[in-house]
Amino acid sequence: MSKTSALRVVGDDASTTAIPNDLQAFWMPFTANRSFKARPRMVARAKGLYYYTPEGKQVIDATAGLWCSSAGHSREPIVEAIQKQAAELDFAPTFQFGHPKAFELASRIAALAPNDLDHVFFCNSGSEAADTALKMAIAYWHARGKASKTRLIGRERGYHGVGFGGITVGGIVANRRVYGSMLAGADHLPHTYNREKQAFSKGEPEWGAHLADELERIVALHDASTIAAVMVEPMAGSTGVLPPPQGYLKRLRELCDKHDILLIFDEVITGFGRLGAPFASERYGVTPDLMTFAKGVTNAAAPMGGVVARKHVYDAFMTGPEHVVELFHGYTYSAHPIACAAGLATLDLYRDEGLFERSKALEPVWADAIFSKLKGKPGVLDIRQVGLTAAVDFEGWKDAPGKRAFVAMDKAFHDEGMMVRTSGDCLVVTPPFIVTEDDIAQIADKLSNVIDATVNPS
């Protein structure tokens, strides 16, 4: 029997969309595979704010893909840049060689980054960016003659991708528990969320800055001479939108300076306008030593990630004979020409359409719509919002943790024509920056409907 999947055709002729009957070959990431394949949530194309199913049904993208298609989908300037680049230079190595767009994009990103975050190292995803930043931190102290500084500090409920470095400093239990001991020599700060103290805060909560002082306890336990870096998300996104308490990040910066520890911001989600500024570090007035990015840098039209390093970090490596490689690290597709072309076109689009400014201007409209529509509904335990993000915690079903949110996500897609994400019994919404006030009202209405539809298990 042939392994080739049969195809069924939707439409009048073979020029329309063909859909595989057999969904088994694709082992889907971060997905309940058996449930999906029994009732697929499939999209076949996208334009602007919308996805479209293979049958042509319109679906509001209230997730910006995976926090990444911030300028909307299939934007012509990005599509054209990719097409042109593929025809002109499809690939060039960046080990020992280079191509112009890599240097151009690095300069553009460095110009957006605050203060002396001036040097950009490219990779292909947020996970690779996290592991790259952690390796840089350890190698930095080695270059400085302090090779004992190898310990890494993360935070509970943190997400830094799925590489072994990222899950070591990450603090989402499900991402860690079946993968063994991970990297040696890591510790974690407490997460910053306290529902009793912070529930229904708009933006950054007032309570919680003192939680940064837990770093002092960790330093006392391990000694600063062993600690290379602290890595945190300015806003913890994947765990369900945890905005930083007011003053928390500044205090963390002060403590890292005090103890000679590098501070790494994971801005894979918060970078490129999600919180109304090019990077969250600008919003919060805190400059990290290393900063990761991905997702929005290409509007997700091509895979790309990277790390931006401050001048003192970069300079520490630029010693010794000039013909010797300074950092033995990189990826075949680092600064891939097509991804660089997509990145440059995306940055042009952000600038020309004022999308970072639009994100900032829409933040209060977004917050008011989400809170006014959902606060006080039966079972809604908390709403968190910062920038163009929001998360709604609601009371789960007895003996089935996470199932209510899963059912709500499924109903949102099939019944309401809207894509949302889940994190436990929490719905997360992060629309593209092209969203309008009418779109925002519609998203809030649809969220209300799916929450109502799941008050009791059916």
Can you characterise this structure?
This protein is an alpha/beta fold. It folds into two domains: 41-71 and 354-453, Aspartate Aminotransferase, domain 1 (Alpha-Beta Complex), CATH 3.90.1150.10; 78-352, Type I PLP-dependent aspartate aminotransferase-like (Major domain) (Aspartate Aminotransferase, domain 2). It contains 15 helices and 17 strands. The strands form four sheets. Strands 6-12-11-10-9-7-8 form a seven-stranded mixed beta sheet, sandwiched between helices. It has a four-stranded mixed beta sheet with strand order 3-4-5-15. A four-stranded antiparallel beta sheet has the order 13-14-17-16, with helices on one face. The longest helix has 20 residues, at 355-374. It is globular, with a radius of gyration of 22 Å. The two termini are 41 Å apart. Keywords: Aminotransferase, Pyridoxal phosphate, Transferase. InterPro entries: Aminotrans_3, Aminotrans_3_PPA_site, PyrdxlP-dep_Trfase, PyrdxlP-dep_Trfase_major, PyrdxlP-dep_Trfase_small. GO terms for molecular function: beta-alanine:pyruvate transaminase activity; pyridoxal phosphate binding. It comes from Phreatobacter cathodiphilus.
